[in-house]
Amino acid sequence: DDRFTLELSAGFIKQAAEESGAEAKIACLAASGAELLQFTGRTEESFLYFLDFDFGKAELNGIDLARRIYQNDPEGKIVFVTSHAEKGMEILKSGARALGFIEKSPNRRTMVGEYKRYLRMAAELSGGEERREEETACRSESERRSASRWARSRL
User: Fold this and answer.
1) Where residue 53 falls among pLDDT bands split at 50, 70, 90?
2) Would you say 99 and 69 are in contact if contact means Cβ atoms under 8 Å apart?
């Protein structure tokens, strides 16, 4: 997606974290799989990844990117965000682990609600432990973003 769409999704995630009371921040807002993999390769932390699934328009498809993320972050959790709801079964059949799927909606409330659900689920799976991590950086050519516990990307 374009930068506008990434920022819009980031706003949904931030609102979901605030409303759910989760101590979560966006760790990496990446415009490509390569950018996200650079980030995961530089940190030892585990993250919750919201991957905006874009089939075939990037250097890696979502399934390949998920596998590469798990190589760098074996304890990570991935939620695919997609307008391709029919591809969910394809993802599951591929063997790529997914915590879940969010179908894109133009309704802000719906999207925030879905993000809140997975933030809570990830916290429960982590033993309810919600903690802020020391800040690290996710770099793109033109920007730096602070990092703590949560990550989001698109392909």
Assistant:
1) confident
2) no
Band (pLDDT 50/70/90 cuts) for residue 105 is very high
Q: Give the CA count within 13 Å in the CB-facing half-sphere of 128.
A: 0
Read off the tokens for 109.
Answer: 């409330």
11, 18, 41, 81, 97 from 8: Cα distances, Å:
5, 16, 26, 13, 26
Amino acid at 122: A
Q: What are phi and psi of 48, to 5 degrees?
A: -100, 125
Average pLDDT over residues 140-148: 33
CB-CB contact of 35 with 68 (8 Å): no
Whole-number Å distance between alpha carbons of 80 and 13? 14
| 132 DSSP 8-state letter | P
Paired with 102 in beta bridges are: 81
SS3 assignment for 25-65: CEEEEECCHHHHHHHHHHCCCCCEEEEECCCCCCCCCHHHH
Q: For residue 120, what are the CA distances in angstroms to 8, 52, 88, 114? A: 21, 19, 21, 10
Q: Is there a contact between 97 and 78 (Cβ–Cβ < 8 Å)? A: yes
Cα-Cα end-to-end distance for the chain: 8
Residue pair 31/143 in contact (Cβ under 8 Å)? The answer is no
**Global pTM exceeds 0.90:** no
